[in-house]
Design goal:
The protein contains 13 helices and 8 strands. By secondary structure, the chain is of the alpha/beta class.
Length: 350
């Protein structure tokens, strides 16, 4: 039997040995996790470098063309008769004009001149020399495109985050917009108020402002072709709607030079302090007297239906149609119903 002092020393040594043993295990485990994480980051960074090799002109599909529009060269795709009433299609985040082609086809067959625009930095349009992705910047490019193509009047059809550019354009040149079709739109910065300049940078700003930190993570997720189906599936109700064709279309621009870094610059701009523009003031929407169709999925998990209801309440000539069993991408989730509703609305304008 131990005397008390000896027992105390024995227990102390025993606990110390146990702690050293477990600390060793923990250290080895953390080191292994760090090495594995570093290997994964290096793997996806290398993949991105090997994938992002093509210029805009090399990678852009032959179905479209480039048009100088203000400070950038925009890539557009067109369908329908030259003398048809013009519909400009404005996509949302991470999409591009290719995702509109299925929607454009029946509208072009109905006699409309359909023009889908790649809104920078997405698709194959030129990225601005200095990142400038605010609503006012995008609206200026759309107006410049209309001028370059000799389009005096147009119908605007915008989706998701492209709603900011769509509405800013309408508010900039309301006399040149015949009608609006707004599908689950966001990016309006409604009721945005001037904010005092924050002291220092937030963790998010530091992350997005540090390319060597953010880019490996983005290359493993947002610009990783293996992740594309996961991203689109998060915005639709039925995973079956994320077809291989739709996934392939969304993957096409991922081969562009500097695609990952460009996305990081865009995220830094849109997640940072926002500029107040025409879309920020609800009072401005009273000037939008053109016929407006607001389409919204009843199960939208990205931009809630209440946002569509509020938008309708501040626009004097807007009708809200709620699509059942639809999440955030109505023209993909229920294409036939989307076309039927849009054609009925457009027919009422004639």
């Amino acid at each position: 039997l131990f005397h008390l002092p000896e027992l105390y020393l024995f227990v102390q040594r025993y606990i110390k040995n146990i702690m050293n043993k477990w600390l060793g295990y923990i250290f080895k485990s953390l080191a292994a996790i760090f090495v594995l994480l570093l290997a994964v980051i290096l793997f996806f960074t290398l993949q991105a470098n090997l994938r992002e090799t093509k210029t805009r002109h090399e990678a852009a599909p032959a179905t479209g063309r480039f048009v100088q529009a203000g400070d950038v060269e925009l890539f557009i795709q067109e369908m329908g008769p030259e003398d048809g009433q013009v519909i400009l299609f404005i996509h949302g985040t991470a999409a591009w004009s290719g995702l509109w082609r299925e929607t454009m086809t029946p509208l072009a067959e109905a006699g409309y001149r359909c023009i889908a625009i790649d809104i920078p930095p997405f698709g194959f349009s030129e990225r601005p020399a200095v990142p400038s992705y605010g609503n006012a910047d995008q609206a200026q490019r759309i107006v410049a495109l209309m001028d370059a193509l000799g389009i005096e009047r147009a119908i605007l059809l915008g989706h998701s985050f492209g709603g900011g550019a769509t509405m800013e354009t309408a508010l900039t040149i309301p006399d040149r917009i015949d009608a609006l079709v707004l599908a689950d739109v966001g990016g309006l910065n409604l009721n945005l108020q001037p904010a005092p300049k924050p002291q220092g940078r937030s963790a998010m700003e530091m992350f997005l402002g540090t390319p060597f930190v953010r880019n490996p993570i983005l290359s493993a997720t947002a610009t990783n072709p293996l992740f594309t189906k996961t991203l689109i599936s998060a915005m639709i109700l039925d995973p079956a709607d994320a077809t291989e064709e739709k996934v392939r279309i969304l993957q096409e621009p991922l081969v562009l030079q500097d695609a990952t870094n460009t996305l990081g610059d865009w995220l830094k701009a849109v997640l940072g302090p926002q500029e107040i523009s025409l879309t920020s003031d609800p009072a401005n929407y009273q000037r939008l007297t053109m016929p407006t169709l607001i389409l919204w999925g009843d199960s939208d998990t990205v931009i809630p239906l209440k946002e569509g209801e509020y938008l309708q309440s501040i626009m004097p000539n807007a009708a809200l149609v709620i699509m059942q069993g639809v999440n955030h991408i109505p023209h993909v989730e229920d294409h036939e119903m989307f076309i039927e509703i849009v054609l009925e609305f457009l027919g009422s304008l004639r």
